[in-house]
Amino acid sequence: xxxxxxxxxxxxxANQVLTGxxxxxxxxxxxxxxxxNGAGKSTMMNVLTGLHARDKGIITIDGKETYxxxxxxxxxxxxxxxxxxxxxxxxxxxxxxxxxGKELKNSFGLLKIAEMKALAKKQFDRLAVSIPxxxxxxxxxxxxxxxxxIAKALMTEAKVIIMDExxxxxxxxxxxxxxxxxxxxxxxxxxIVYISHRMEEIFAICDRITVMRDGKTVDxxxxxxxxxxxxxxxxxxxxxxxxxxxxxxxxxEIVLQVKGLTKKGQFEDVNFSVRAGEIVGVSGLMGAGxxxxxxxxxxxxxxxxxxxxxxxxxxxxxTPDQAVKAGIGFITEDRKDEGLxxxxxIRDNMVLPTLYSFAPKGIIxxxxxxxxxxxxxxxxxxxxxxxxxxxxxxxxxxxxxxVIAKWVGIGPKLLILDEPTRGxxxxxxxxxxxxxxELTDRGxxxxxxxxxxxxxxxxSDRILVVHEGKINGELSKEAAxxxxxMTLATGGQ
Amino acid sequence: xxxxxxxxxxxxxxxxxxxxxxxxxxxxIILIIIVSILNPxxxxxxxILNLLRxxxxxxxxxxxxxxxxxxxxIDLSVGAILALSSALTAGMMxxxxxxxxxxxxxxxxxxxxxxxxxxxxxxxKMAPFIATLATMTIFRGLTLxxxxxxxxxxxxxxxxxxxxxxxxxxxxxxxxxxMILTFVVLFIILHKTPFGRKTYAIGGNEKAALIxxxxxxxxxxxxxxxxxMLAALAGAILTSRLNSAQPTAGTSYELDAIAAxxxxxxxxxxxxxxxxxxxxxxxxIGTLNNGLNLLGxxxxxxxxxxxxxxxxxxxxxxxx
Lengths: 493, 320
Fold this sequence. Notes:
The complex is a heterodimer of chains A (493) and B (320).
Chain A: E1 3-12, E2 15-25, E3 30-34, H1 41-48, E4 56-61, E5 64-65, H2 71-76, E6 79-82, H3 94-98, H4 113-127, H5 142-155, E7 160-164, H6 172-187, E8 191-195, H7 199-205, E9 208-213, E10 216-222, H8 228-236, E11 254-263, E12 267-275, E13 279-284, H9 290-297, E14 305-310, E15 313-315, H10 320-325, E16 328-331, H11 335-339, H12 346-350, H13 366-379, H14 396-408, E17 414-418, H15 426-441, E18 445-449, H16 453-459, E19 462-467, E20 470-476, H17 482-489
Parallel strand pairs in A: 3-8, 3-9, 6-7, 7-8, 13-18, 13-19, 16-17, 17-18
Antiparallel strand pairs in A: 1-2, 1-4, 4-5, 9-10, 11-12, 11-14, 14-15, 19-20
Helix pairs in contact in A: 4-5, 14-15
Chain B: H1 2-5, H2 10-38, H3 45-70, H4 78-94, H5 99-122, H6 128-147, H7 159-166, E1 168-169, E2 172-173, H8 174-192, H9 194-204, H10 206-211, H11 216-242, H12 253-263, H13 275-294, H14 299-319
Antiparallel strand pairs in B: 1-2
Helix pairs in contact in B: 2-13, 3-8, 3-9, 3-11, 3-12, 3-13, 4-5, 4-6, 4-11, 5-6, 5-11, 7-11, 8-9, 9-11, 12-13, 13-14
């Protein structure tokens, strides 16, 4: 299927989101779509699939002008959009999810379960995945859920699949499986629009790339004819000197020491320490127990035995409030679910851990609260007109800055960052890295859990690799390479 | 999608904020205008004072319910707590304990009953609806056990006690004064203290609140205790007005309280709402009751009208 979009305009109220976008998708190509958050990538795809009506412009499909009224129409025509937020019904089985709204029924209106199972199995075989069909979808890993969505798309005989950040929550292993699927789809003549922030992936699997900025298409190029630097330059519209800032760590005393931390079935005999001013990267496959260890340190989920020492003193942390009181901040991997109250203003979110400091006599002093919030917004360069805007309205990068600001506000001794730049665009990523540097310069100890190897290598002073709940190895900044980390992460030495 | 979210329209936001703030008040004013056109005697001072006295009991319960609903919870046991604490208070008075002391102890007992709710909900990890449904039945049953199903009378002629439900202070009925004082205190707690912010935060996103270091279980237990205590305070007013404790007192009061909170614009899913709205919501229900009585509408029809008004109010709220 060949799609062209010419000179597309789209505004929401006074906000002009697309200002003359051009896009072309060829038969059987994997076409990357890149751009900072808010550049208009998703909007463009939503215009294509009929979720939003265009204001102006021409869309043709196989040479014929076509405008879909809604995504369902687009799907019937063979264009499926797999959104970043997966459409999974967590309490229903995998099979029910696969056929939701498209159940096969016999003439009595009863479900033809055997037939559906056979069909589902065929799709899963094609994708080389083996997820039990009667498993509850909510118990599947994000990678499995992603595969369910892809299988769903294939069952509608999709000729074009649009994937928005498909690898954001996948492990390395799942990513390589996804790539295999993509190349087999390509061979079968399916075209794929691949929206992602991850440069390495795009250069690994895509044929062409279109870069968007501020609602316009900046350029379209064949992958072999371009490189990382050019793409980044076009995305941000300015020279980005480096993806990672230089680090000159000045290590101080040991801030956190974890001794023999064990929780049955999750992690075992975890020992490590972090010094003031140090960034310790924690790598490992998803599900290896990285997040569980961090949550245990922060008083979430608990542990069976082991000790946590802070600045040379043994501490008992059973609940998050004790962790906060001890000076630990935790930026969780799920910003929307655990980091922020999306309906609340930037101000109300930022002051949550520090409420009492504004109310020495019981009543909140709104003036000092406003000063504090204004200072944090400035220091973390959160882009907003006012501190009273709901955080849900901010871009991913700005939301993440609000979460970090919350914890900067407590004057932390230790910050745990779990996937600090997930869903954050290149420009904002760099700002977050700079901020981590600034914090360590002031003596904060940082633990950074990340699935992005370049980030782990670029920012860590020391790297711990977790495999099946155990720390399988430690690498110094100098010694670490992607290969070494992956070897340790998969159980090798 | 991000690009849509990035759209901010301060003007419409402000308009929304204003209609959200003033919507219930506007509704109350319209209602008052309609009722007073249909029957001008509605506006007579005596009637207004009477209305305020009638509203006080529901308003006090609804204030507590506002905190509960803001956390995303619900408290179905308030009517039963009112009955049980009233019976216990009356029992203490009959046995010769100073009436004011008895009321105080009654309020503390009400608070403890609320605390039981809070503990089941937090430590027992039960859904608030289920936990308070069960305790509602238990408290109601205990009331019947304690009273033997008969009213408790012979509460003596203590002046302060009689004043509490029937008296006037500077020409205003004492229950109304109690209601306004309680409102002011709770307004300050909800909007000006860390406790209030935490209440909203828990309803907005409980997980995020917990991770921000808020002691979610403790705050919740305190809120259910507050709800119980306010129900007991309302019970004391009722006991004074009736000069007796009725075993079936407060039946379905929880529903009127929830109605007042919802009419006041507080979202049942938590995190959004205001206690001022609840005060207005209670006044709307009071005005309806009072107005329909003045207009001679039968109490059967009154229920129908009340239900319709709630439906319309919530529909209008959805439209915004």
